[in-house]
Amino acid sequence: MTAMTRLSIVFLLLFSCSVALGDSLPPPQGPVILSISGEIKRTNVGDEAHFDRTLLAELPRHRLDTSTVVTDGINRFEGYLMRDLLAQVEARGESTVALALNDYRVDIPLTDFHDYDVLLADTMDGETLTPRDKGPLWIVYPRDEHRELQDIRYDYRWVWQLERLEVR
Amino acid sequence: MSRLRRLPAHFAPLLVIVAFATFLAFSLVRLFQVEQDMRENVDENMLWVITQAQVASHRLDEAVNRLARGDETANPGLRFDNFVSRLELIAQGPQQRYLADLGFSDAIQEALLGMQAIEAMLVDMAPGDLTLADQVHDELAPLLLKFNHMANAVMIEEWENTGLRLDKHRESLLQAIASIVGILLSGVVMVGLLLRTLSQNTAAKRALANHRVELERQIEHRTCDLEAERARLAAAIDTAPDGFAAFDAEGKLTLTNPQLVELLPYAAGPAHDQPLAAVLDTIRSQAGMDTAREATATGTEGNSLQCDMEIPGQGWRQLTLRTTWDGGHVLRVADVTRYKQAALSLEEALQREQGVSDFYRSFAATVSHQFRTPLAVIDSGLQRLQRRGDNMQHEERHQRYVRLRDAVAHMTRLVESALTVARIDGNQVSHRPDNFDLVAIVSHTCQLQEEAAGSQRIFVQHDAPSPLRVRCDRALVEQILANLLSNALKYSPPGSPVTVRLSSEDGMALCSVSDQGMGIAPNDLPHLFDRFFRSRRAATVPGIGLGLNIARYLARIQRGDITVNSREGVGATFCLTLPLDNRGTLP
C-alpha cells in the first residue's frame, strides 16, 4: 500500500466523519420562537438549538382534534410532534423542563412524547397562536383519545407560550 | 301468599342484597362524581388563573416603571402580551362562565377596555417617560383591586365547594359503607340459610341412603326367605310320590322333579327345558288322546285339565294341568294304576254280583214256567199207578214207568238248559278261546251223538283242507254242535241222513248241519232263535225252546254266528260260522 493511497483513505474517512458529525442544525434566519438546551446532540447556536418558524417547518406537520380544560368544545390544533422535534435535536435525556414566556415552569418526562402523539401546536382552529393568547407554541396532549390523559397530573403539562426546553 | 311461600327461603335476603347493591351503586356513582369534580379542579385552577393575572399586571406595571426610569432591558411589550394572555384566558370558556356566575362579567369587560387604553399608551412610550408610567399605573390600580375581589370570591367559592364536596363525599361514603354492611349482613343471613338448606339436604340424603340400605337389607332378607321357600318346595316336590312340573306364563319350565320322567316317559321334555306346549303335544301324540279320557273343569283359579291315560307295561297315570294365578301352569302326574285296578275289579265284582242275581231270577222264572207240565205228567202218572197199580198188567205198568222216566229226563234237561240260560243272563259264561281243529271237534261230536242216538246216519263232508284251524272254546263249540245234531236227528225221520259239511270262506270256517225233515214254516223262521219259542209242528217232539237260543249266544260270544235255511217238507240247514285262526299251533 503506497503512502498516497494511505493518505487518500484517511482523507476519505475524515470527509465521511465530517458528513456524519457535521449535520448540525442550520442557524435560524427569522425571530427565534423556541430554544432547546441540555442533553441534545444537534445544535446551531452554541450548545443550544434555536428554532424559527422556518426551521420548525422542516418537521412533518400533524393535526389533532381535542378538547382542553380552558376552552369550550373541540379545538383543531396543527403543528409538530414533540417526538419529531426531540429526534431532530437528538435529545438523550429522561425528561425536559418546559419554560413559558410567563415564567411558567414544569418538568415533563420524555416518555410522554413516545407514548402519546403530543403536539407542539402553532395554530388553533386555523388561527396562528400569538403571545397575547397562548402562542407562539402550545404543548397539546391528545386528551380525548386517551382516558388516562384526562387527569390534572397531565393538565399541568399543557404548557402554553412555550419558549424554551431544557433536556435533562 | 301461597306464591310467596313457594319461593325458597333465601329469596328474601337475596332481594335485600339487590336493594343494597343498588344503593351502593348509587353511592359509588356519587363518589365518582365527587372524584371527577376534584379531578377537574376548576376552583383551584381559577384561583391560579386570577393570581397569575394579578402577577402579570404587577409585572407589566413594574416593566413600565423601570423603562420610565431608564432601564433599557425592561420589556413592557412582553409583559403586556402576558397580561393580555391572562385576561383572554379569563374572558373565555369555562373561566368566563365561572366568574360570570360569581357576578364578575362587567369587571372582565372593564378590564379588557382598560387593556386597550394601556396598549394605546404603550405604543408611544419612550424611556424616561414617567408621566406615561403614572398613567399606566393609574389604569392598572383599579384592575388590581378587581382581581383582588375576584380572588377573594373565588377562594370563598372554592372553600364552599370543597366543603360541599366533602359533605357529599362523606355522605356517599357512609351510604356505601352502610350498603356494604347491609350486603354483608344479608350475605351472612343468606349463607346461614344456604348452610341450613345444605345441612337439611345432607340429612335428607343420609336418611335416603339409610332407607336404601334398609330396603336392600329387606330385599336380601326376603330373597333369602324366598330361596329357602323355593328350596323347601323343591325338596317337598322331590320327595312327593307324584311327578310335578311348573311352567311360567311364557310356558317355560321353572321347576320339576325326577318322578315326573319316571312316571311319564313322554315328559322327558321338561327335563330338557322344552316349553309346555311342546310337552303337551308330545304327550298327546304319543299317548293317543283317544285312548285317554279327557275332561275339562273350571275351578276357582281358572281352567284345569285332567285326564287318565294308560301307558302300556306301566299302568295308569292321571295327568292334571292347572293354570296358576300368574298365568303359569302346573302339571301333576300321579300313578293311579292301583286305583284303576281296584276300580276295575270292583266293577267286575259288581257285574258278577249282578249276574248272580240275574241268574237266580232267570232260573226261577224258567223253572216256574216250564216245570209245571212235566211235574203234572209225573203227578198224574203216579196217581194212576197208586190207584190201579195192583190191577195193572206188567206191560202197562212198564209203559207208565218209561213215560215217568221220560218226564224226569225232560226235567233234567230243562234244569240244565235253564242253568245255561241263567248263566248267559247273569253274564256267568266264560270262554277261553284257543286254536283248535274244527274237523276234529266235529268228528268227535258226531261220534258221541251217534252213540247216544243209537243210529248211524250222520255223514261228514270235507270241502275245506284239514285241519281247519279256528279260534274258539272247544267245549262251547261241542255244546253248539251237539244241539244242532240232536235237533237234526230229532226233527227228521229215522233212517234219513243228516249231513255235516265243513268249508271256509272270507276268513271264517263254516260248518252246516242239514237234515231231511219236515222243515220250518216261513212264519216261524224269524222267531226260531227266540227264547222258549216252539213251533206248533214240533209240539209232538219234546223240547223247551232254549237250545237254539243258547247255541247262537255261544256262537256269537266266540265272534261267530248261526244262520238257518229251510224249505218246508224238504229239510233244514243250520250253519255255524267261526273265525279262522291259521297262526296257532295244535293244542
Automatic annotation (TrEMBL), chain A:
**From which domain of life does this come?**
Bacteria
InterPro entries per the UniProt record, alphabetical:
OxRdtase_Mopterin-bd_dom, OxRdtase_Mopterin-bd_sf
**Pfam families in the record, alphabetically?**
Oxidored_molyb (PF00174)
Q: What is this protein called?
A: Molybdopterin-dependent oxidoreductase
Q: What is the lineage of its organism?
A: Bacteria, Pseudomonadati, Pseudomonadota, Gammaproteobacteria, Oceanospirillales
Q: Which UniProt keywords apply?
A: Signal
The residue range of the signal peptide is 1-22
Q: Oxidoreductase molybdopterin-binding domain: which residues?
A: 75-142
UniProtKB/TrEMBL annotation, chain B:
Which reactions fall under this protein's catalytic activity? ATP + protein L-histidine = ADP + protein N-phospho-L-histidine
PROSITE patterns (alphabetical):
HIS_KIN, PAS
Signal peptide feature range: none
Q: Where in the cell is it found?
A: Membrane
Q: Which UniProt keywords apply?
A: ATP-binding, Kinase, Membrane, Nucleotide-binding, Phosphoprotein, Transferase, Transmembrane, Transmembrane helix, Two-component regulatory system
- GO molecular function per UniProt: ATP binding; phosphorelay response regulator activity; phosphorelay sensor kinase activity; protein kinase activator activity
- Annotated EC: 2.7.13.3
What are the recorded Gene Ontology BP terms?
A: osmosensory signaling via phosphorelay pathway
Major subcellular location class = membrane
Question: One Pfam family this chain carries?
Answer: HisKA
Q: What range(s) does the Histidine kinase domain occupy?
A: 366-582
Positions of the PAS domain: 229-266
Q: Which GO terms describe its cellular component?
A: plasma membrane
Q: Which SUPFAM superfamilies match?
A: ATPase domain of HSP90 chaperone/DNA topoisomerase II/histidine kinase (SSF55874), Homodimeric domain of signal transducing histidine kinase (SSF47384), PYP-like sensor domain (PAS domain) (SSF55785)
- What protein name does the entry list? histidine kinase
What the entry lists under InterPro entries is as follows: BphY/WalK/GraS-like, HATPase_C_sf, HATPase_dom, His_kinase_dom, HisK_dim/P_dom, HisK_dim/P_sf, PAS, PAS-like_dom_sf
Q: Please give the start and end residues of each transmembrane region.
A: 12-32, 173-195
Q: How does it sit in the membrane?
A: Multi-pass membrane protein
Enumerate the Gene3D superfamilies for this protein. Answer: 1.10.287.130, Histidine kinase-like ATPase, C-terminal domain (3.30.565.10), PAS domain (3.30.450.20)
The answer, when asked if Transferase is one of the entry's keywords, is yes
